């Protein structure tokens, strides 16, 4: 599924009406009720429902002290405010600051807030989103060892620590999200062996690594890239079979520079102007296919490419005939 035009949605003003019980706007945010909100807003935030949006709210703050807001409402039943919501999607972990102007009124000890959302600032250098997306991609492609375990009545996915590089900041965020570090986990020695070996591992709550990706372990020709940066996506890794097909040593770094080594100038231009924008607006779990002509060791060949989206990561697979 592909979203409607990104820039058009971004420039719209969204109006949300919410109900807050108990004379509070900042406490018990998870129990507030959204009375109305445009579907386009939920689509833009990547939420399937209002409950998913509410569950993704980390905090909410206003330009006026909360006690003064309540005092004014109690006195005159109305106040105008400005506020911001820190939003972190419970599935993708993408983070945004949602800025709004609000009209507040009170009715029978219930606050009604009409929020006019005029600016949504997405965090474009979110290491945590990149880490989780990369892990999901590698699990789907079967290029990273993992194991599902139960510990203290919680379902975890264990990943060997040495296979993941984390900054101190990302590690702190994962600890906040209930990940466990330096846990000894027993893994199969290899797929064809009954032996095991123990490795220090990071335990991720299974809910953190939920993914709509299909099992892509049978794909031989693939590459994946990070599309978080709105100016230029970056390749992160490619399969050895695909590298061999193209006759290159690696595919890593900005997408355009790498494509210039893989295809003609006209095909690079077509890919960057027609295909890459479609990948940017691909929904979570979305799939898109098109044909691209590559310069291979067998000459110029047109192959069907299929792309899959998880968080900020796009995996591209290439259908290469066995008879090539």
Question: How much helicity do the residues have?
Answer: 25-40%
Query: What is the third-level CATH name, the topology of the largest domain?
Result: Beta-Lactamase
Question: Nearest-angstrom radius of gyration?
Answer: 23 Å
DSSP E strands, number: 16
Anisotropy-based shape: globular
Strand content: 35-45%
CATH architecture of the largest domain: 2-Layer Sandwich
The main sheet orders its strands as 2-1-6-5-4-3
Q: Pairing-aware structural class of the strands and helices?
A: alpha+beta
Low-confidence stretches: 1-11
**CATH class label of the largest domain:** Alpha Beta
Describe the largest sheet: 6 strands, antiparallel
Please indicate the count of domains: 3
Could you tell me the mean pLDDT? Answer: 88
Report on the architecture of this protein.
It is a single chain. It is globular and about 80 Å long. With 324 residues, the protein is of the alpha+beta class. Helices cover 25% and strands 39% of the residues. It folds into 3 domains: 6-122, Beta-Lactamase, CATH 3.30.450; 127-209, no CATH class; 222-319, Beta-Lactamase (2-Layer Sandwich), CATH 3.30.450. The chain contains 9 helices and 16 strands.
Architecture blueprint of SSEs:
Layout: H1 6-11, E1 14-21, E2 33-36, H2 39-45, H3 50-55, E3 57-62, H4 66-76, E4 78-88, E5 95-107, E6 110-122, H5 127-141, E7 147-151, E8 154-160, H6 168-176, E9 180-188, E10 196-205, E11 222-226, E12 234-238, H7 240-246, E13 253-254, H8 255-259, H9 265-280, E14 287-296, E15 299-310, E16 313-319
Antiparallel strand pairs: 1-2, 1-6, 3-4, 4-5, 5-6, 7-8, 8-10, 9-10, 11-12, 11-16, 12-13, 14-15, 15-16
């Amino acid at each position: 599924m592909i979203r409607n035009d990104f820039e058009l949605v971004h420039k719209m003003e969204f109006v949300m009406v919410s109900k807050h019980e108990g004379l509070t706007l900042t406490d018990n945010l998870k129990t507030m009720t959204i009375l109305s909100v445009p579907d386009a807003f939920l689509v833009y935030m990547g939420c399937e429902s209002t409950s998913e949006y509410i569950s993704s709210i980390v905090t909410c703050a206003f330009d006026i002290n909360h006690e003064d807001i309540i005092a004014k409402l109690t006195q005159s039943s109305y106040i105008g405010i400005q506020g911001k919501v820190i939003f972190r999607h419970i599935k993708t972990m993408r983070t945004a600051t949602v800025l709004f102007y609000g009209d507040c009124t009170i009715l029978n000890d219930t606050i009604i807030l009409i929020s006019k959302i005029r600016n949504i600032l997405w965090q474009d250098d979110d290491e945590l989103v990149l880490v989780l997306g990369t892990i999901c991609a590698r699990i789907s492609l079967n290029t990273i060892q993992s194991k599902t375990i139960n510990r203290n009545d919680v379902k975890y996915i264990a990943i060997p620590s040495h296979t993941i590089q984390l900054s101190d900041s990302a590690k702190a965020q994962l600890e906040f999200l209930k990940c466990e570090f330096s846990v000894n986990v027993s893994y199969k020695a290899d797929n064809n062996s009954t032996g095991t070996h123990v490795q220090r591992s990071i335990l991720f709550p299974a809910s953190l690594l939920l993914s709509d990706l299909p099992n892509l372990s049978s794909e031989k020709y693939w590459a994946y890239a990070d599309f978080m940066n709105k100016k230029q996506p970056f390749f992160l890794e490619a399969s050895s079979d695909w590298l061999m097909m193209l006759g290159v040593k690696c595919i890593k770094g900005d997408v355009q520079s790498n494509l210039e080594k893989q295809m003609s100038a006209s095909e690079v231009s077509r890919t960057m102007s027609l295909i890459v924008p479609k990948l940017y607006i691909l929904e979570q779990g979305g799939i898109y296919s098109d044909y691209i002509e590559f310069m291979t060791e067998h000459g110029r060949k047109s192959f069907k490419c299929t792309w899959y989206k998880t968080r900020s990561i796009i995996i591209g697979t290439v259908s290469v005939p066995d008879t090539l």
